[in-house]
Design brief:
Blueprint lengths: L2 H10 L1 E4 L7 E4 L1 H4 L2 H12 L9 E5 L2 H13 L2 E7 L7 E8 L2 E8 L8 E9 L3 H12 L3 E10 L5 H4 L6 E6 L1
Parallel strand pairs: 3-4, 3-7, 7-8, 8-9
Antiparallel strand pairs: 1-2, 4-6, 5-6
Helix pairs in contact: 3-4
The structure holds 1-O-pyrophosphono-5-O-phosphono-alpha-D-ribofuranose and adenine.
Length: about 180
């Protein structure tokens, strides 16, 4: 991506102080989603991080990760698997508890969503402390998938989330703060 597009994308991400709790500077992606050029640019750039590898399925994390993961899957021509917050999936699930920048939660995936040996890419909107991504990557690993790595739209590098997921293959981020 050229530096002009990169700075347009960076400037479109809105800072919201003290959301959802005091002391958190929330990165609001909705202005990017509302702009067709920025949206296309984002998905094309995320897709370009994996062009040399065949992906069978992308796992997207509830809820903002669904937006990027599903668009990315359509762009790459592969399947999409939702990793959902506890209690939302109707079939048999595997689950894991985790902590994120502003709380704790549980993530679940259908136990038949990924077949052993499938090439899987994780997609999410944002990497902060890495707790959420690590939980999803653990679920993918339990399914005996061939983990290709992870792609995020935004990385909050000062929270060192990358360290928490370093054993799960390469992680790419488009915009770093
Ligand atoms: O790296 P971490 O500290 O774990 O934080 C990153 C996660 O936090 C947000 O999800 P959130 O649980 O707020 O869900 P949402 O997408 O439904 O807003 C974001 O979409 C990531 O999934
Ligand atoms: N600061 C932040 N902004 C937006 N989403 C987040 N998820 C975790 N931390 C976040």
């Amino acid at each position: 991506m050229d530096s002009d597009s990169l700075s347009r994308l960076r400037q479109a991400i809105r800072d919201v102080p003290d959301f959802p709790s005091p002391g958190i500077l929330f990165k609001d992606i909705t202005p990017v989603l509302a702009d067709p050029d920025l949206l296309r640019l984002t998905i094309e750039t995320m897709a370009a991080t994996v062009t040399d590898q065949k992906i069978d399925k992308i796992v997207g994390i509830d809820a903002r990760g669904f937006i990027f993961g599903a668009m990315l899957a359509a762009h790459l021509g592969c399947g999409f698997v939702p990793a959902r917050k506890k209690g939302k999936l109707p079939w048999r699930t595997r689950g894991v508890d985790y902590a994120l920048e502003y709380g704790t939660a549980s993530l679940e995936m259908h136990e038949d969503a990924i077949l052993p040996g499938e090439n899987i890419l994780l997609a999410d909107d944002l990497l902060a402390t890495g707790g959420t991504a690590a939980a999803a990557l653990q679920l993918i690993t339990t399914a005996e998938a061939n983990l290709i790595g992870s792609v995020f739209f935004i990385e909050l590098a000062f929270l060192n989330g990358r360290e928490k997921i370093s054993s799960y293959g390469p992680a790419h981020a488009i915009i770093t703060f």
